[in-house]
């Protein structure tokens, strides 16, 4: 059974085992940006689901940090930084620092795949709340004298999430041969 389209009837669905909703072919800028980001967030969850714990934490690329678990943790904290900290003005609670720049990847070894998926889903829900409360052109002070808009954050998160979805494509295929969108 397919999920109901979120934005309009022009949304196209993926196969029945996949709960992602493809972005609609029409809609305003906000609808398009949030729908593409949500599709990519769903892709991250879809590519990560169904792995064994050892496979979720196993590195198949030269970097020992590039695991499914590591990428889920990284993306959870990237969402938190841009939406909660940068746009929302919340304190940064991330497990990384100047002394431990890969902390979000490193803590993934201590967390189950189910916990990582749940943390990512929870953070994405909080990010959607921040997004819903702002206009695309709303800005906040950022890194000194700069201004940061919701539009910039959404575009950046589409890029960041899409890039890591590509990493998950490669990692998943190397782990168990699963390919596809």
UniProtKB/TrEMBL annotation:
| Gene3D superfamilies assigned to the protein according to its UniProt record, in alphabetical order | dinb family like domain
Pfam family of this protein, just one? MST
Protein name as catalogued:
DinB superfamily protein
Residues covered by region (Disordered): 1-26
């Amino acid at each position: 059974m397919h999920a109901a389209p979120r934005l309009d009837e022009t949304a196209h669905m993926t196969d029945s085992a996949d709960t992602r909703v493809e972005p609609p072919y029409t809609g305003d800028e906000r609808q398009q940006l949030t729908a593409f980001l949500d599709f990519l967030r769903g892709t991250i969850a879809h590519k990560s689901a169904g792995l064994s714990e050892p496979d979720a934490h196993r590195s198949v690329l030269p970097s020992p940090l590039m695991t499914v678990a590591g990428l889920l943790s990284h993306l959870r904290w990237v969402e938190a930084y841009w939406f909660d900290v940068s746009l929302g003005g919340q304190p940064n609670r991330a497990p990384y620092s100047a002394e431990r720049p890969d902390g979000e990847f490193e803590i993934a070894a201590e967390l189950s795949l189910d916990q990582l998926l749940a943390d990512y889903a929870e953070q994405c829900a909080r990010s959607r709340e921040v997004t819903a409360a702002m206009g695309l052109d709303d800005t906040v002070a950022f890194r000194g004298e700069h201004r940061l808009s919701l539009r910039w954050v959404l575009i950046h998160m589409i890029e960041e999430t899409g890039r890591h979805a590509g990493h998950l494509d490669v990692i998943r295929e190397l782990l168990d041969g699963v390919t596809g969108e």
